[in-house]
Amino acid sequence: MEAYLVVNLNVQPLEEGRDMLLAFLSEKGFDSFEETPDGLRAYILEKNWQPSLVTELSIVQSGAVQLTFDTEKMETINWNEEWERHYEPISIGDSIHVRAPFHAPKPEVRFDLLIEPKMSFGTGHHQTTRLMSLLLLEMEVQGKSVLDMGTGTGVLAILAEKTGAREVTAIDNFEWAVENTIENAARNSCSKITALHGDAGSLEGMKFNTILANINRNVLLEDMRVYANSLLPEGYLAISGFFESDRPLLDEEAESLGLVAEKLLTEDPWAARLYRKK
Q1: Among 50, 121, 158, 276, which is 20 to 30 Å from 137 by CA?
Q2: How far apart are CA 66 and CA 62, in angstroms?
């Protein structure tokens, strides 16, 4: 088997920086990621590694994240074994269970979701996924059109269909995420999800009753006007991927666009916010 390198990355700010770093590195040839107390462990074939993959990232060059890193060599990696060792099923509230194909089903739970990440540690277990899932359960999407922006594994799009959405559009700017969403939708017998490769610029001419956007603070602030314009009257925008301390910035932007804040869920230090279009 070919030799791998493990790149140990210490990043600041930790939570937001780690999320941004994972998103950027996922397109640089790394095979897998593992969260650590100080940042990330990133796995890549030794022949594909060069320090510029990290040092020339735009978020590093701009100073958005501060990081240090070192490498260590691993001769062989059994990815199936690594994945099964790290990926545990999770329960979200009393109604949602998220598991991989090698976990036993939990039929007594209302929503038993089967998620196999395209990349080994991209499991969707982040606090913001839990917050958005709980927020979605409190919303009325029965018979409505839903957009899941930054869909990732597609877990929120799948939950939206399971809660009765008429149609779901799932968009991500990473092609592997779009492929992963299509695969996971099929695993969950979902037929109303359309997965697309793109960003907020893809929304021109589209209208939705409900928009879900679990991304990060900067993207949410940059694209909120597009989201507001893409909402039908009395439509709802649910967002997460930001710290509770950043909520006033997002509320101010939302209010300027005619969006009324209705609900707030938090899991320290993260938050999820629901807005309604006037």
Answers
A1: 121
A2: 10
Q: Which helix (H) or strand (E) holds 21?
A: helix 14-25
Phi and psi of 7, rounded to 5°?
-100, 115
Number of C-beta neighbours around residue 71 at 10 A: 14
Residues 116-155 have pLDDT tens digits of 876 533 454 678 889 999 999 999 999 999 999 999 889 9
> Is the pTM above the cut of 0.85?
no
Composition of the chain by helix, strand, coil, percent to 5: 35, 35, 30
Per-residue pLDDT tens digits for 53-97: 999 999 999 999 999 999 998 766 555 566 556 677 888 989 999
- Among candidates 236, 250, 235, 245, which has minimal Cα distance to 266? 245
Nearest alpha carbon to residue 247 among 276, 274, 229, 277: 274
- Phi, psi of 120, rounded to the nearest 5 degrees: -50, -40
CA dihedral 234, 238, 243, 248 (to 10 degrees): 0
Instruction: Find, among 133, 113, 153, the residue nearest to 22 by Cα.
Output: 153
- Report in angstroms the alpha-carbon separations of 203 from 55, 73, 118, 200, 218: 33, 44, 25, 6, 18
Domains of the chain as residue ranges with CATH:
4-77 (3.30.70), 126-277 (3.40.50.150)
Which residues share a beta bridge with 277?
Answer: 259
**d(C-alpha 141, C-alpha 270), whole Å:** 24
